[in-house]
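Sequence in, structure out.
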Amino acid sequence: MTATPEIRAEAFIIHLARAELRKPQVERLAATLPLPVNILDAVDGMALTEDEANAIYRHHLHRPRYPFALRKAEIGCFLSHRKAWRAIVDGGLDAGLIIEDDVEPDEELFVPALALAMKTIRPGDYIRFPYRSHTDSGAEVAKAGGVALVEPGHTGLGMQMQLVGRQAAAELLKATETFDRPVDTTIQMRWLADIRVLAVRPPAVRQIGHLLGGTIVQKKSKPLGEILSREVKRAWYRLALRAAAIGRR
């Protein structure tokens, strides 16, 4: 892949050292991404002590209340993204491309999508590369090479890849010194940080965790009753989040 960056940007691949099945994909990404690449050691949530977790995780910190307690793996995921935001700020970069290690860029769409994102990005922008086609719909901001950037009315879930401006990274760090929900759900609460969220359409990446040993964040199996209860709570939360967003417009 080739691309000509117009800003000073580097890539940060978040990789948990014990996830050995993902190492070949990390090496593949590092060899093909059109930016200087840093392998960022992910925070291993399972290695966090209770005191370490409690220092940054606060249940029911924000409204609408998030209905689930975070598992340590989710706390580690959040801290890993904070680590990437910190690297952007401390490195004096204009932007950083943050990538989780279960991502596969589309051979045709990724390069023009990244080029458009780097041409468009402002310091306070957070540009998502979602892997689902049905999320992140919104008004078109820029278009070129068969891809577009939109400003979604509702931000989708997932943290597979984002191009984050330095000011946006600083704002996110400030807003998440403590947190109460997963990092992607936190990004949906746009009122927490003074950032502009954009998204690439159509999807220019694929999520391939199922080919790399599965997720390292989600709990494997749950009883049927717990599954049903979580679905009800999740639906309630989605409605509450949308109502909160409308109320702040």
